[in-house]
Amino acid sequence: MRQYGSRGIFSYTSCSAAAESSRMSSSIPSKMKAWIYNDYGGPEVLKFESDVAVPEVKDDQVLIKVAAAALNPIDFQRRVGKFKAIDSPPPTVPGYDVAGVVVKVGSQVQGLKEGDEVYGDINEKSVEQPKRFGSLAEYTAVEERLLALKPKNLDFAQAASIPLGIETAYEGLERAGFSAGKSILVLGGAGGVGSFVIQLAKQVFGASKVAATSSTGKLELLKSLGADLAIDYTKENFEDLPEKFDVVYDAVGQRDRAVKAVKEGGSVVVISGGAATPPGFFFSLTSNGEVLKKLSPFLESGKVKPVIDPNGPFPLDKVDKALSYLETNRATGKVVIFPINP
């Protein structure tokens, strides 16, 4: 796995907290660089602008000076209008995953302060009225409850790659009632969600056996993440295996095949494509900073690791190219945007 240093993005002197707070607040500009689209459509509607208004901070929010962000399929799904009926209307600054430094706090914020290094998925509901000001910008405003302190052993690029993927993996396993001694098959084990499902199932939930699918070139990655059985989907059909699993976690949209690989009484977790028929169930993530806090010891110990696509990171002014790459469905782990505030 490729490692990325934070390159000393932010360095803070030992001046008093009050002086530092004053310095940060006074240095916040009124305008920022950000990617934005004013109408739904293809890649051409997304523009890089330098005069986007820095978002206002509500009482329960903090303003983050963004160091790094990561991309997710929902970023381009929103842009094309897939969730138009329940989306916040454009203009929209896309982006869910963020890592950065708190530079301003709302009046009701109690657990975070200016100068804290934080990370999180900034949208509590993935598709229901998500924020119009996302993380693909120099600043973003986020509710305190959606954030956690960045693990000390991870740089900003690594931290930004984690929140949506690890929270989706965890919530799906919880909803499936996954527990120690159970077996699981992960479809799309090398992706942004699947790579965390493998690790959480093994390290956090105590799986008896973890199987996962990927293309030929990513099989060794699956094994390094903890998969006991790595299945090359280009050469064999997972549903034809004689062994069945307590849970099948479908991270790639193969629900009709997935139900053929689950044991009687088992569950199939579906995270794309909407409603599923039993034993499958679909869910949409609810972002929660408490999940990140709960999993922090596993991240800080190195038992659970972020997987960053080796073609990145992409700088902020290359987000359009990064999204085009993500849309090829060939990315390994997460596509990261870094640096954002060099």
Task: Explain this structure.
This protein is of the alpha/beta class and 342 residues long. 22% of the residues lie in helices and 23% in strands. It contains 9 helices and 14 strands. Strands 3, 4, 5, 6, 7 and 14 form a 6-stranded antiparallel β-sheet that branches. A 6-stranded parallel β-sheet has the order 10-9-8-11-12-13. Strands 1-2 form a two-stranded antiparallel ribbon. The radius of gyration is 20 Å and the shape is globular. The protein starts with 16 loop residues before the first helix and ends in a 5-residue tail after the last strand. The model is unreliable at 1-20 (pLDDT under 50). Belongs to the zinc-containing alcohol dehydrogenase family. Quinone oxidoreductase subfamily. This is Quinone oxidoreductase-like protein. GO terms for molecular function: oxidoreductase activity. It comes from Forsythia ovata.
SSE layout:
Layout: H1 17-26, E1 31-36, E2 47-53, E3 61-70, H2 73-79, E4 97-105, E5 117-121, E6 139-143, E7 147-149, H3 156-160, H4 163-175, E8 183-187, H5 194-203, E9 209-214, H6 219-225, E10 229-232, E11 245-250, H7 255-258, E12 262-270, E13 280-282, H8 289-300, H9 319-326, E14 336-337
Parallel strand pairs: 8-9, 8-11, 9-10, 11-12, 12-13
Antiparallel strand pairs: 1-2, 3-4, 3-6, 3-14, 4-5, 5-7
GO molecular function, one term: oxidoreductase activity
Organism: Forsythia ovata
Family: Belongs to the zinc-containing alcohol dehydrogenase family. Quinone oxidoreductase subfamily.
